[in-house]
Amino acid sequence: MRIVFATGNEHKLREAREIFTGVEILSILEFDKAFDPDEYGKSFLENAVIKAEAARALTGGLPVLSDDSGLIVPALNGAPGIHSARWGGLNGDHVRNRAKLRNDLRGVVDRRAHFLCTAVLLTADADALVATGRVDGLLIDEERGAGGFGYDPMFVPDGDPRTLAEMTPDEKNALSHRGRAFRRLAAMTARHFL
Amino acid sequence: MRIVFATGNEHKLREAREIFTGVEILSILEFDKAFDPDEYGKSFLENAVIKAEAARALTGGLPVLSDDSGLIVPALNGAPGIHSARWGGLNGDHVRNRAKLRNDLRGVVDRRAHFLCTAVLLTADADALVATGRVDGLLIDEERGAGGFGYDPMFVPDGDPRTLAEMTPDEKNALSHRGRAFRRLAAMTARHFL
User: Fold this and answer.
1) Residue of B nearest to A188 (CA)
2) Which 3 state secondary structure label does DSSP give B155?
3) Which residues of A touch B192 (CB under 8 A)?
4) Which residue, among B126, B176, B188, B192, has the nearest Cα to A177 in the 3D structure?
5) Rounded CA gap, B145 and B135, in Å?
6) How would you class B150 by CB atoms within 10 Å of its CB: exposed for 0-12, middle for 13-18, buried for 19 or more?
7) Is there a catalytic annotation at residue B136?
8) Which among A5, B93, B161, B164 is least surrounded, fewest beta carbons within 10 Å?
9) From A48, which residue of chain B is nearest by alpha-carbon distance?
10) How far is B29 from chain A (nearest CA, A)?
11) Environment class of residue B31 by beta-carbon count within 10 Å: exposed (0-12), middle (13-18) or buried (19+)?
12) β-strand pairing of B64-72 with B24-27
């Protein structure tokens, strides 16, 4: 089976290839180098669907994988949420995003937070499977570690003293929201195509 | 298992209850009599997701069923599509909708059309299953039959000389887009919870 992943992010592509064994994962950039749909949805699932359907329109009926994810801080009323990737004002500028979040957290005592990921597989016959993954932890003020990306250097997952950015890719994938969502989705996919 | 259906349409509720055997189907109106989320999505799947997530916010974690559907006329560039229910200007005014469509079709030779339905089940743990259903047929200028609703009196499905509105509910459900989507979704659900 071949699946087109609606992302140009090499990190996500590698992760998907490790988890969806026996499946060839193509990047949507092979179909459109400028793929970058407007994500106007109001939830992770809506935005994942928007990306998946935009990709499907380009790929002539191949199954499509997409994901959307973000960081939820209950003490900040759920922010940054679906705006996680552009929280500092520039899409994908992780340094600005972390600086803004650190500023938001000044004086906030409750540092609990969780990452959520919603992963979607649109099948060739237009059905779909959706799996979510979550990892809970604490946000710290300093930044530690050079791995991962986004808010990883500030996020200490429950049950481990390190930030996500201090872990190897395999260690992070084993407990990350995206790793969990992808593994659930891979299991659902295998069951669906039994 | 109990599932909340994000609709107040009695016809759809009855249909879902016939197809999802062994499941108690509640109406979202039992949770909010005024349930009517803004459907700003640009596809059936987006709008079905919007309805499902709006319902889930009201139901405290119960699984939620939703659907979105419409009529696609290739000769009209896919119209009325996601705007099917308000094509004549007033949401749910089927007489106006049919009058507008009949007007659009003046002078149009290719009368082929199809109904599409996208049905979504959000599970209690925030995963989701999506199934689509389709019925192909021809649009006629006159209206025949008193059953069904919407564009049914103008739509003659392939393989039958009658309009959908001339059929019994059981006959219509056996071949309709919504019946097909619901049966696929029920089968996917049974496999998912094996």
Assistant:
1) B192
2) strand
3) 188, 191-192
4) B126
5) 18
6) buried
7) no
8) B161
9) B46
10) 23
11) middle
12) unpaired
Interchain pair B130, A131: CB under 8 A: no
End-to-end CA distance of chain A: 13
CA-based torsion, B9, B98, B180, B117: positive or negative: negative
Contacts across the A-B interface (CB distance below 8 Å): 57
Which positions of A are catalytic? 68
ipTM score of complex:
0.90
Task: Give pLDDT tens digits along chain B (194 positions).
Answer: 899 999 988 888 988 998 998 899 999 999 999 999 999 999 999 999 999 999 999 998 899 999 999 999 999 999 999 999 999 999 889 999 999 999 999 999 999 999 999 999 999 888 999 999 999 999 999 999 998 889 999 999 999 999 999 999 889 999 999 999 999 999 998 888 76
Mutate to test the interface with B, among A38, A43, A45 (most CBs of B within 10 A): A45
Q: Which of B32, B68, B158, B170 is catalytic?
A: B68
CATH for B2-193 (3.90.1170.20, 3.40.190.10, 3.90.950.10, 2.30.30.40): 3.90.950.10
Q: Which of B43, B44, B49 to mutate to test the interface with A (most CBs of A within 10 A)?
A: B49
CA–CA dist A153, A151 (Å, integer): 6
Work out the minimum CA distance from B88 to partner chain A, whole angstroms: 27
